[in-house]
Amino acid sequence: xxxxxxxxxxxxxxxxxxxxxxxxxxxxxxxxxxxxxxxxxxxxxxxxxxxxxxxxxxxxxxxxxxxxxxxxxxxxxxxxxxxxxxxxxxxxxxxxxxxxxxxxxxxxxxxxxxxxxxxxxxxxxxxxxxxxxxxxxxxxxxxxxxxxxxxxxxxxxxxxxxxxxxxxxxxxxxxxxxxxxxxxxxxxxxxxxxxxxxxxxxxxxxxxxxxxxxxxxxxxxxxxxxxxxxxxxx
Length: 234
Description:
single chain, DNA polymerase, domain 1, 2% strand
């Protein structure tokens, strides 16, 4: 019996040793401090996984999606010749006041190229540099530059007007002409030019030069004088 008791005690002691080893498998490999550090790392790793799983932390997929949508927004480009005030208001750096100024300038003078945007009150070179990426390119900026040959052409037109006739080579596209270009025609002053621009907007463009007869102050005699110097474009 004593022998059996001794064997049982030895077995329990061996079992206790094995249990101790199983409870802390890192005891033989790591110091106490190293085991604590490892425990902290495992704890925070599990905590992070738990937070991410339950939606507490932001998901990378959602961030990537938002980033792609943001980039797509920058791909949207507007046409200065047709963009609405509401659309202009969505462009950073414009706002309601500048949007109104852009629309008013377009209605009065029209845009012949994208750089014409700098002619709008409140939009200088610095502002234009920030905004131009939001609009499509069109027209030929050099053709309408104030430093180009068009200035000389204006002087020539002025000379002909003072003599009471239009130059034969001079032609104005009434579907794209600005107020300045319209007033270059004999018998068309700022008031009539503004009325022409207003009618053009109402009609959505001229399809026949005789539609100018609808403008107050323009009769058949005035139209006959400018008929050879106006066109409807292509």
